[in-house]
Give the backbone structure.
Amino acid sequence: MLELQEINFERENKKILNNINLKLDTDQFIAITGPNGSGKSTLVKIIMGIEKPDSGKILLDGKDITNLKIDERAKLGISFAFQQPVKFKGITVYDLLKIASKKDINKKEACEVLGEVGLCAKEYVDREVNGSLSGGELKRIEIATVALRNAKLTIFDEPEAGIDLWSFNNLINVFEKMRNLIKGTTIIISHQERILDIADKVILMKQGKIEKIGDSKEILEKNIQKECCVRKKV
Amino acid sequence: MENTKLQDDLLNLTDEGLLGEISDLERIKKGAYNIRKNGQGIERKVTENTNITTKTDKPGINIYVKENAKFELVHIPVIITESGLNDLVYNDFYIGKNANVYIVAGCGIHNDHHKDSRHDGIHRFFLEEGAKVKYIEKHYGEGNGEGKRILNPVTEVYLKKGSSLEMDTMQIKGVDSTVRETKGVLEEDTNFVVSEKIMTHGKQYAKTIFNVELNGENSSTHVTSRSVATENSEQYFVAKIYGNEKCFAHSECDAIIKDNAKVTATPEITANNVEANLIHEAAIGKIAGEQLTKLMTLGLSEKEAEEEIIKGFLR
């Protein structure tokens, strides 16, 4: 359903993505892992249209979307959860969920989604999406916004980044549940073994290239011994 | 007590539209009110606990709320539909001990002609001990004429021991020129909260000046201004706060700027007592790119995303 052809992205004389070729099938849960600076975040941003590749093509269901804007790609069914959820002034959780769902959902429906991501809905639905929310709370709200979109392709850019281990353990439960809830294909950048374990495919990136594609066992066995880019189960 | 009755021909559709922009018509009728149109009072209702009288020395009214009155509603909207009118009005509110009052004031101007229409409302609030007031002020301008719509409101708030006033002011549309002055004089254990929302377009000009004197122990104030300046408009924000006793003050100016607009924020906080704790924050900038990006990933176009961000910001 998604195809990347010869994607290159270079900044300050550094090849951040070096001739990436990748084909993803429908209804798969794909994890991308690899050391910091290997190009994972840039790759998913290029898929969403937040970054533009210097060269190469992106195809969604056979259609060339390389030159489409972010919102045009969103309308075609790509959804994106930010590594650092964006904060607003005055926009409430309910506002954001309404925008995400593309229709006028009522508060009860919004609360149900918040419940799915482990938030006590009544306390949150009318709160502003601002700095008064903790990192873990913002992450869950971010996940709720993408879950509501029912997208063909849902991307999570390192959901574990910036939150404490305790919060992340709870968040992994949410992902395990979401594994069944989110339809279509999911791409998740993660270093967590429990996330890689539930993936259909794990993509290992290094220095702007795809080093290997396999199941979590294949990737983990070789790479944990070599260098520690994946956190063991906790 | 005086009550005047509404005559059908005094309020037409334009008037009702203007009134609707500045306050809720149904709600107005529930409490005491005084409606002023083109420089004259046209309708008034008083209640058991709220009396309204016409000033004899200058244009305007006195509003008296009895002590211990609870959940009183007072509306004093002003509408101007006559081009070239220069309306100056003095309204004084006397709020009795421990009374709890919700007050809505505001001015709607409809100017379809070439002469300037202007309304300067001078509102003074005298709160007795323990009184609590929520004060909403809304300004709105409309009409296709070249004549300017000018509003220069002055608000003075005097708080006696243990009283508090929370003021929400909003000027979102259609006012060409405004200079807003808000003054607070606070005795002990008082609290004065102001939240201001302003949006300017075209060549509009808006200046807001806050002047708060914290004279009593444990007095506190929060002054927040959120504004959006677009096109060629200009905004000035001045906040002067004087901490003369053990007190707390927080003023915050947060502005979104677009196109060729200009915004100036001038904070001035003066501590005249070692126990005064005064904070000022000011931020001016364009809409954060990441906010636009996030909303675009949810399917909004850049323009729609911008509208949502501004709508939330000014809510």
Remarks:
- The first strand of chain A starts at residue 2 and ends at 11.
- Residues 2-86+152-226 of chain A form a domain with the Rossmann fold fold (CATH 3.40.50.300).
- Chain A touches chain B at residues 48, 50, 69-71, 74-75, 78-80, 82, 86, 88-92, 95-96, 99-100, 102, 145, 149 (CB under 8 Å).
